[in-house]
Amino acid sequence: MITYFNLTNMDHHKHFSHPHTLSFYKSLEGAQLTCTGCNFPCTGTPVYSCRACKFFLHDRCFNASRSLTHPSHPDHPLSLFPSPTYSSGSFICNECNKTGSGLCFCCSNCEFDLHIHCAFNTLNPNPSTPPPNQIKLKSHPNHPLKYLPKPPSASGFRSCDVCGTGCDPNGALYHCDICDYDAHVTCTTLPESVRREDHPHTLSLLYVYPYESFECDVCRGAIAKSNCMYHCSSGCNYGMHVKCVPAKVSEQAPMNEMTFQMEMFKLQSQMRLNQMAFDTMLQSSQKAAYGIRY
Fold first, then answer.
1. Whether the predicted model's global pTM rises above the 0.90 cut
2. Which of 91, 117, 175, 177 could form a disulfide with 113 if both were Cys (CB 3.0 to 4.6 A apart)?
3. CB 160: neighbour CB atoms within 10 A?
4. How confident is the model over 61-69, as a mean pLDDT?
């Protein structure tokens, strides 16, 4: 028996991305449901649902066009696919550069992909389905996060506690007043698992950091203990920052403190030598201009 829906329509509907018929409901406030299409919460919004499969689609995702011409890729039309077409089972959105695993608009000729919500937001900056006012994250289970159109006033620089990168000072985010915890809106819908073509196993999203220290296998930088990370689910000690999933592997290891100081000393010494050579050249040219002979 469904306890988290208000039934609004007994009609049954079909969607190309799911083999079963769907029923149209309105989810109740506080229901922890996630749209299979865009991976955003479905709290308090109309949804198409398959109860047996726990499959949910926002009204807007259900009614998305199967094909569209998008300004970010005007040369070819984009087709709506029920899931990524790559062997990795995920894609990198060319609009926001984040990983996706649900419905995607794709140009297979150019390997150009868009999240369904990124395609909508570009075409319509004021989407009909706003983000929920409050959510819960597995990475911050003790308190709900509130949606803020802008970061807390007079708070200075803020970084996302999920991916570790900076927050836009004029952009929306989710925030916990009690813990001063922040999350990009896009980081609240990260896929539970992703794959990279340079690694044979699935990478799972870790909400709790299990290591004292860990070096990202993509950028070679340290992963902060307070951030989430993707880690090999087969136990081969391979992992990375959330932000590094779409990045290329760096061939250069990060400098330790001693190496950094030595490189800085070499650079400063070279700058002093260059300055001495420049001063000598300048003095010689001045003497030549005034007819001074050695």
1. no
2. 91
3. 23
4. 86
